[in-house]
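HOLO CASE FILE
Compound: 6-O-phosphono-beta-D-glucopyranose
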Amino acid sequence: MTPSSTRFRAVIFDLDGVITDTARYHYLAWKRLADGIGAPFDEAFNEELKGVDRMGSLELILARAPRVHGADEKLALADAKNEHYRRLIATMTPGDLLPGALRALEQVRAAGLKTGLASVSKNAFTVLDRLGIRARFDYVVDAATVRNSKPDPEIFLRAADALGVAPGDCLGVEDAAAGVASIKAAGMFAVGVGDAQVLRQADVVIPSLERFDLFAY
Ligand code: BG6
Ligand code: MG
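Model generated. C-alpha cells follow.
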C-alpha cells in the first residue's frame, strides 16, 4: 500500500469526547446529579459511563446511591440531567471542535471513503448543528432508534449497513472503553482516542484526532 491508500471503505466516528469535548459536559451534569442524591462520583467512575446511554448511565449512578429510587423519580432525574446538559451545549460553536477533528473528517472524505457517526446521545444532532458539521457525514445514526447501547455492536453495525459497507471494511473511532468494545464486537478496526490503559481493546490508541492518519492503519 502506498501512503495515500487505505484498505478501509468507511470511517465511523463517535461524537462526545472524540469530535468535541461534550464528554466534559456529560461529566459535569452527572456529577451535579450524583452530588444531589449523595452518590459517590469521580473521574474514574465517570469512565464507566462514557458511551453508555442516558438511562443506563443513571442506573449505574443509582446503584451507588444511599437509597432506592422509584420509576418516576428516575425519569425526573434523567430529565433534570438532560436539561442541565442542554444548557451546557446551548452556547457551543464551531470553535468547540477538538483539535484535528475537522482535518480527520476532511481526510476521510478526500480519500473517497464514507463518513458515519455513531453516538448514543439523543442530543447528537443538536451538537452537530452547533458545530456546523452535520453535512460532513454521509450517515448519522438516530440514537432514539437504537435499542442496545454500547458496548453492544448495534449502533456501529447500523451505521455500516446504512453506508453500504461491510463491517470488516470499516474503521471506528472512540474515546470510551464501551465504545471500543462495541466497534470490536461489530468486527471493525478500532482507533481509540485517549488513554491506552483505558482503551486496551483498541487496535491503535492516539492521544487526540490531531494524530489521526487514515493511511497509517
Ligand atoms: C454518549 C456519552 O455519547 O451519550 C454518554 O458518552 C451519554 O456520556 C450518552 O450518557 C447519552 O447522551 P444523551 O445526550 O442522550 O443523554
Ligand atoms: Mg464518546
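CASE NOTES: The chain has two domains: 10-21+97-216, 23-89. The two ends are 11 Å apart (CA to CA).
CLOSED: yes
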